[in-house]
Amino acid sequence: MLLAPADPGYPYPADWGPAWKCTPCDAYIRCYAGTTRPLGSLADAHTREWRRRAHAALDGLWQGGGMSRSAAYLWMAEAMGLAEHEAHIGRMGPDDCGRLIELISRRQH
Asked: Which distant-in-sequence residues (6+ apart) come within 8 Å of 45 by Cβ?
């Protein structure tokens, strides 16, 4: 179901816009700003935790000044063998997130 920020059970900060949510499995994903188009795929608590970890690892590549954000995402696409338009953590499951974290760790050491 599509939830607006004011709806009961809305899982994000109120200024993030609508979100899709599967109430029985507590999976959800927010939408692109001003749309009802999901940013990725529905994610349960386990998957959300892995996505948070993967984002933290990837953010470390560009927030430290070593490369731009867009360069970090291009690197991720190449390292994971994905087309640029497919390189989104919001589409990844736990296994792919773990693989990305490992690739980043190897790159940094």
From this structure: 26
